[in-house]
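pinned: reference chain
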Amino acid sequence: MDKPAAEGSANWLVTVALLPTEDPASRMRVLRTLESLGAAVVREGVYLLPDSAANRNSLDALSQYIAKSAGVAHVLQVSAASGAQQQAFQRLFDRSWRYEELIKNVESLRIGFGHSDPSAIASVLHKQRREYETIVALDFFPNQVRTRAEKVLAETDAAVRKLMFPGQTQTGVGPGERLTKRIWATRKPLWADKLACAWLIRRFVDPEGSLTWLDKSQPAPASAISFGFEGAHFANSESRITYEEMLAQLGLAKNPALTRIGSIVHFLEAGGTPVPEAAGVQTLL
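pinned: its structure tokens
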């Protein structure tokens, strides 16, 4: 998406629309499209957007749709009559309050440091990052609040990574220890990494074993093999999530399909290099 002209530009696109009242579905589609474009409402039936090639193309297509739906729409290219009006138009697109709300949500995650599961915190942070990207896509006139939001996200992400990857090497199970017909235990809440580990155990490690989901502070049974939390037999290491640790320690890392799953799970848990399949897996979860 190309951005509109620089902040000092006075070019705007005004859409004047008479929407069909007898077709509520079409009317709602038009309004939702305008909202998705980030259009500001000047008054009923009059919508404002900064002038850009992308916005012109989108509004032209929308106007054609409105005409086919028995409505009328005109897209006008206008200029602000004065500097004061230009500033008033720009204020209609001020996204500061959305950034401030995001900053507040991200900073509140630190309350859970040392108490909540780092994977659960990372999952919420990932959603906040997606919300930030949504805001940025419609932020035609960036300001310092956007920069601050980006900084808070980056700092919190770095802090969460330290919680998830403490830098200690996990010992895993003892040499020669039996891995079949065992109890495998992890703690709630369940998310991508722990669910992937459970699947790996059932499919490749211990098909006849049993899985136990423990409460947050509940200790694992003495005879169980634990995974997915600090102090467990299998847990996050300095750079790998628990699933990847299991692959490495159990000799499964050479399987390309399992490794590919590991890259998806790693991105969902800890971010990093985007993986195309991750969005679909997140939807399923």
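why pinned: Strands lie at 11-18, 40-43, 46-50, 72-79, 183-187, 210-214, 225-226. The mean pLDDT is 88.
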